[in-house]
């Protein structure tokens, strides 16, 4: 019997050698459908994800950038006391964007979920990470908007 689905996900992956080596499209296709079935979710991935070359799909580039920022904010909670020059530069850019409120408004509207090997996904409030990051960096001297 065919299940009714509320959503069909068309998955795209930025083309990279490491993703091809891992056979990521096959793994994601199987795992996403298995997780949906296991959790009783009403979505499916009807076909294997496709690779897209870098710079071809602006939406993919934007999602990649936003996920990088979210990852930075989450990991910042346990940041080392001696960040690298790259980490400092990333942090300063994110701080500048957050202080301008544009990025903060976007991030606070994103529904972000964490799966901690439990049956249910747990929604994560990104506001906690944003507030913590701003508090830790309140004395940072970055360019105004």
Can you walk through the features of this model?
51% of the residues lie in helices and 11% in strands. The protein folds into two domains: 1-56, no CATH class; 57-145. The strands form three sheets. A two-stranded parallel sheet has the order 1-3. A two-stranded parallel ribbon has the order 2-4. The protein starts with 6 loop residues before the first strand and ends in a 9-residue tail after the last helix. α3 crosses α6. The protein is globular. The protein is built from six helices and six strands. The protein has 145 residues and is mainly alpha-helical.
Write the layout of secondary structure elements.
Layout: E1 7-8, E2 12-14, H1 17-21, H2 24-39, E3 43-44, E4 50-52, H3 58-76, H4 85-99, H5 102-109, E5 112-114, E6 122-124, H6 126-136
Helix pairs in contact: 3-6
Instruction: Summarize the helix and strand pattern as letters.
Output: EEHHEEHHHEEH
Number of domains: 2
Number of helices: 6
Tell me the distance between the termini: 56 Å
Structural class: mainly alpha
Beta-sheet strand percentage?
Answer: 5-15%
Count of extended strands: 6
Helix content: 40-55%
| Mean pLDDT value | 82
* CA gyration radius, whole angstroms: 18 Å
Name the overall outline.
globular
Biggest pleated-sheet summary: 2 strands, parallel
Keywords:
single chain; 145 residues; mainly alpha; two-stranded parallel ribbon; two-stranded parallel sheet; 51% helix; 11% strand; globular
Summary, kept brief:
The chain is mainly alpha-helical and 145 residues long. The protein is built from six helices and six strands; from the N terminus they run ββααββαααββα.
